[in-house]
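$ ./design --mode recover --in tokens.txt
reading tokens...
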């Protein structure tokens, strides 16, 4: 098998690899978005789980779900920030 045969095999392998990457892109994108959420509360909950449990794996959906159940509502959205009580609405202060 000479150089033309090797080039043909490499081209086919590259095309197959590109096809697999294209097919997996939506799955990997979804997995990444779920493992590294943009929601600050979820991200903080996942960080807390990672610091509390060295075996925690944020790539596993069941682990993330259990983490959210334990920590999502227990932690404020931002450090030092507490949400307003349920009976208060966000209206401007009438202090003059």
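writing sequence...
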């Amino acid at each position: 098998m000479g150089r033309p045969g090797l080039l043909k095999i490499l081209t086919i392998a590259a095309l197959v690899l590109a096809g697999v990457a294209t097919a997996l892109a939506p799955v990997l994108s979804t997995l990444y978005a779920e493992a590294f959420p943009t929601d600050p509360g979820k991200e903080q909950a996942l960080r807390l789980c990672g610091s509390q449990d060295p075996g925690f794996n944020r790539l596993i959906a069941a682990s993330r779900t259990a983490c959210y159940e334990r920590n999502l509502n227990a932690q404020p959205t931002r450090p030092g920030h507490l949400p307003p009580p349920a009976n208060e609405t966000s209206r401007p202060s009438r202090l003059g």
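exit 0
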